[in-house]
Amino acid sequence: MKRFITLFISLMLLISCLSGISASAISFDCDVETHSDSILMVNLDSNMVVFEKDADTKRYPASLTKIMTYIIANEYFDDYDNTRIEIKQAVITNLEANGIACSGLEWHVGKSLTVTDLLYALMVPVGHDAAAVFDDYITKDSGTSFVELMNKKAQELGCTSTHFVNPTGVHNPDHYTTARDMYLITKYAMGLPMFSKICSTSTYYLEGDEYPIITTNYMIDSGRGGDYFYTYATGVKNGTTDEAGRCLVSTAVYDGYAYMVVCLHAPYNFERDITEQYPMIESANLYRWAFLNLEFVTQVTKDTPICEQEVEHAWDTKSTLLVPESDLNIILPDDYNDADVVITPDTTEPVSAPIKKGEVITTATVYYKGDEITKINLVAQEDIRVSFILYVSELVKSVLTSVWFLISVLIVVVLFVVYVGVSSSYSKKKSEQKSSKNRRR
How many domains does the structure of the chain reveal? Predict the structure, then answer.
């Protein structure tokens, strides 16, 4: 029973570990000037957060919404190059009637484009028209609301503070997300076909066009990006509305290190001439800071003892050493001290033999200067045999000292006392009856 309870606790801790890795709340010392109200920077090789600022506050995502739109459209179709979708006048007219700008599909009304072309039209320019085309087609073809599919997918990805109202990102008070949720959405999208390629494209020619559609993400556009261009940027998508401000999800790769930065609600007011692309500036500066100051460190190997674990019912030992399940590779500042990193077991409850070498016993939390970085599994360093005598004696002891056993004994004693009392009373009564008969004779 104790072993079962211990294994159950370990399983729960493991689940907690897996679900909490990407949500670790640590920001290394960083002197980058920031303007966005919400920022999250994550190392993509380890899913480790290295900088954050109000990453869990709900914000309007503007055109970052189209990253989820891409996910739904990409997963809906099987053949991107041979599946064609008609560009309907009604879809374009509806956008224009609501003051929503098109990005080139108005020139293709009455024609059809491949899914591949439409995915580029969605992610390279602003892409409202491509989002509306996908919405119209998939909703009618599947019989399920496109937005319903978006919200269902967000829940599947673990987004706890995201709700979509439309596939374009046009402002709605009930249309929101967080920097952390946008990271989850984008990280998932990066594993889908063509996403990274499309989001790193600065110009693209739709079928039959003489002029290309052009990216709005100046970080990846060497020809038009000016001072916003950043050599190591590889994507992804930006957006702007009066309510959302400037928003950006970007990625960058340098010298084997890959990062993502999510920026939401940076200053923007066209009428007051506040038009600077602050997210692009601060993202580039954050990348420079990370590439120059952070590095992968093997803090401990899988052979490094972390703690001593008490073991019950073992044949020839009372404890065993626990080691990491695998090498602990984490991102740390290049000037860190070993004393800054502390690894603390999450539970010290005794475990029961038998134990196999490599068996997960518990988890441990890794801290940097008191802030949680991640969690790791701790495993047994050796096989430990069970002692049958100790196990049985402990079992007997636990039974004899258990509440139910004591209650049972009490019940037996009470029943015995009652039995003795009843028997005595019965015997006394029979004796009196016998004496009474003798007197009558």
Answer: 3
Here the CATH number for the domain that contains residue 312 is 2.60.410.10
| Residues 69 and 131 sit within 8 Å (Cβ to Cβ) | yes
Find all residues with CB under 8 Å of 35, minimum gap 6, and list them: 266, 267, 278, 279, 281, 282
Residue 146 belongs to what H/E stretch? helix 146-156
Domain that holds residue 422: 396-428
Question: Does 312 lie in the same domain as 249?
Answer: no
Q: How many residues does the chain have?
A: 441
Average pLDDT of the segment spanning 216-229: 97
Beta partners for residue 59, in sequence order? 177
144 pLDDT above the threshold of 60:
yes
Comparing 7-21, 209-223, 332-346, the range with the smallest average pLDDT is 7-21
Which residue(s) pair with 250 in the sheet? 236, 261
Residue pLDDT, tens place only, 92-137: 999 999 999 999 999 999 999 999 999 999 999 999 999 999 999 9
Residue reference for tokens 């991102």: 331
Q: Are residues 135 and 240 in the same domain?
A: yes
Judge whether 261 and 294 are in contact, CB under 8 Å: no
| Cβ–Cβ under 8 Å, residues 169 and 175 | yes
Taken in order 16, 21, 25, 26, is the CA torsion positive or negative? positive
Give the predicted TM-score (pTM) of the model. Answer: 0.80
Same domain, 372 and 403: no
73 shares its domain with 144 = yes
Would you say the C-alpha torsion 370, 372, 373, 376 has a positive or negative sign?
Answer: positive
CA–CA dist 167, 165 (Å, integer) = 7
Q: Residues 264-286, buried b or exposed e (16+ Cβ, 10 A)?
A: bbbebeeeeeeeebbbbbbbbbb
Q: How far is CA 259 from CA 49, 227, 293, 438, in A?
A: 10, 20, 13, 108
The Cα–Cα gap between 216 and 53 comes to 25
Residue 424 has pLDDT above 80, yes or no: no
Four-point Cα dihedral 240, 242, 244, 249, nearest 10: 10
